[in-house]
Automatic annotation (TrEMBL):
Name of the protein this chain belongs to: HTH cro/C1-type domain-containing protein
Domain spans labelled HTH cro/C1-type: 1-35
GO molecular function, one term: DNA binding
Gene3D superfamilies: lambda repressor-like DNA-binding domains (1.10.260.40)
Amino acid sequence: MSTSILGKIERGDRLPTEEQLQIIATALDIKMDELKGRE
């Protein structure tokens, strides 16, 4: 998924699909683990 798609979603120009939401959620979960020090 490109950042341009994320930018459009953030601006409300495009609604995310269910698959895109899952990808975003998975990415955020990974980032949260990294922030918590689980490397």
